[in-house]
Amino acid sequence: MAQEARLQRGIESGSASSGRLPQPYLLFLGDTVEAGFAKTAFGLRDWAPDLCVGEFALPGAQVTVGLPQMRPADAADKGARALVIGVANSGGYIAESWIPALVEALEAGLDIVSGMHAKLVCIPELRYGAERLGRRLIDIRTPPANLPIATGLKRTGKRLLTVGTDCALGKKYTALSIARAFADRGVKTDFRATGQTGIMISGGGIPMDAVVADFAAGAAELLSPGAAPDHWDVIEGQGSILHPAYAGVSLALLHGSQPDVFVVCHDPSRSCLLGDEEFAVPPVEEIIDLTIALGRRTNPAIRCGGISLNTSALDASEADELCRTETARLGLPAADPIRRGPAFDALIDECLKA
Amino acid sequence: MAQEARLQRGIESGSASSGRLPQPYLLFLGDTVEAGFAKTAFGLRDWAPDLCVGEFALPGAQVTVGLPQMRPADAADKGARALVIGVANSGGYIAESWIPALVEALEAGLDIVSGMHAKLVCIPELRYGAERLGRRLIDIRTPPANLPIATGLKRTGKRLLTVGTDCALGKKYTALSIARAFADRGVKTDFRATGQTGIMISGGGIPMDAVVADFAAGAAELLSPGAAPDHWDVIEGQGSILHPAYAGVSLALLHGSQPDVFVVCHDPSRSCLLGDEEFAVPPVEEIIDLTIALGRRTNPAIRCGGISLNTSALDASEADELCRTETARLGLPAADPIRRGPAFDALIDECLKA
After folding, report:
1. How far is B348 from chain A (nearest CA, A)?
2. pLDDT tens, position by position, B111-122
3. B151–A245: do the CB atoms touch at under 8 Å?
4. What count of CB pairs under 8 Å joins A to B?
5. Domain at B158-352: CATH architecture
6. Domain A19-139: what homologous superfamily?
7. At what angle do helices B216-223 and B247-257 cross, to 10 degrees?
8. For residue range B21-44, what is the model confidence (pLDDT) as tens digits?
9. What is the pLDDT of residues A211-240, one digit of tens each?
10. Which of A11, A248, A343, B44 is 20 to 30 Å apart from B222, CA to CA?
11. ipTM exceeding 0.95?
């Protein structure tokens, strides 16, 4: 399967994080009652189904990602090597009520992988359990040690970065979808993850939001090292260059990634920034212009490859129509990377054109 | 003295860092043989002379900032409350050979203040000495705990930010000089420090380069809190929006500072970025345009107040001529904030105009 091959290649080629993650996974859903708080688990199911042997929820949970339900010992029997915390709650905490289940996973021979703000190693029961049982506690949000200061120097190989008009509107899904399409066309491609779910999917990467500011561009340089001239790194974007809280991360990632091509991700159903009614979503054109004005500093040849529209709020014919009108208006291919179809093929053509 | 009053007010008003620094200082020069590596000490001598009781160098040092030379016990007798490491060596390390002198300071009753990358508290002799003697070890580069995510919301009061075409060309000196000129005109003003030397001068601030990327804009918001409508915060800039390593920090500081006015700092004698011949210094106009395009996101009224030219490589008449031609070319006041004179008065007028 192309996706698995691509993902495995991503792992084999080595990542910038502290080594490969133990895979496959058992997805832990905790006692989650709302699907929105299990987006890490859904992301893994959607993008790395071959890495997921099952799901494990506590009594009271009302969310399923549709995988076989099993306890840690059964998952270990089926080959799982780690339990992944598939929950992304507000605050990023590890609930007291989860700890017995997490200890059960350690006792079943599984490592634990977490992208929460709270650190596994700071929970005494888990630290003690892992030491006693010889298991690993892997906190994805801990960036690699000894990150370099960026040099800005041009590296070999090609790079594509997804950028956005806001947070949480499809930059990771777009990058994964483009990486898969590149691989399907026989292009040598690695997906480069910059956030917790992306890192779990690809088995490596750097959590950009956790890096100390002075080293953020350096981390981005490390993430997509020099490669063969015909090799593409497809890099997961973060935040937005016009987001009042996260623009610094977005700019460091832009400069360090030195993309040849960027794709602007946009949700046409969103008028204000997520959770922030004070700020309008900026026009796609403004993001294109600013990304070129800033990005050409480390890659003078930077260009926009098209627009990724999150049309999940529209039906199929509305989505098609919007992609057509936006393509005409902007003079660049606009497509939904989840719906795919001819518009998406045109976007891939534009990204790969010499 | 206006400067002392302003600095004291800066301290009294409370800073965003972990409390007031113990002052006045004894400036420690280590065994430095080159003035460039003692820029923290020179900055303190120039901008906070009333906070410096003397200097203390080891045998072999070839640098003096011109203050009375004394050992820690004499400095304590003269009222010093802390020894400040006035050295900024490459790598930011604390040399083995300094440790006996630093222990001597602790024994004399002084705290130690350091802006080095290496942490005082990680040196066993110092940690043990401080515990034994009840002294404080203050690592300036440790940012405050529990920084918030930025909201982007408008705060009351006025703000000025210095921005740059490169690093290390006068953003701190320009901010200090403007803050002093504002205070001299009777304007309520606080200098807000974002780097180690600025923090030592003003007694508070946040080391922006040491903040985790996701919290950088939030740190900048915390640094210049809401204030009286006629109060000005003059904020020390960092890096450059077009610096390949540090632009993320610069953008986070711009968004979080939400300046009403910015002043572009430029060194006309520099053609390439400091220590980086691959990158030309960008034109002042490009920095103005990008700063407005990005900064209006959190302050739609942002405007450029003028250009601060570092003319240290020119003689007085050349400097005057350059300020005149740049003022005419850019249509904004251009002045050297160290030389001052009528051009600088015009710059201050422009910054303060309603």
Report:
1. 28
2. 999 998 889 999
3. yes
4. 129
5. 3-Layer(aba) Sandwich (3.40)
6. NAD(P)-binding Rossmann-like Domain (3.40.50.720)
7. 40
8. 999 999 999 999 988 889 899 999
9. 999 999 999 999 999 999 999 999 999 999
10. B44
11. no
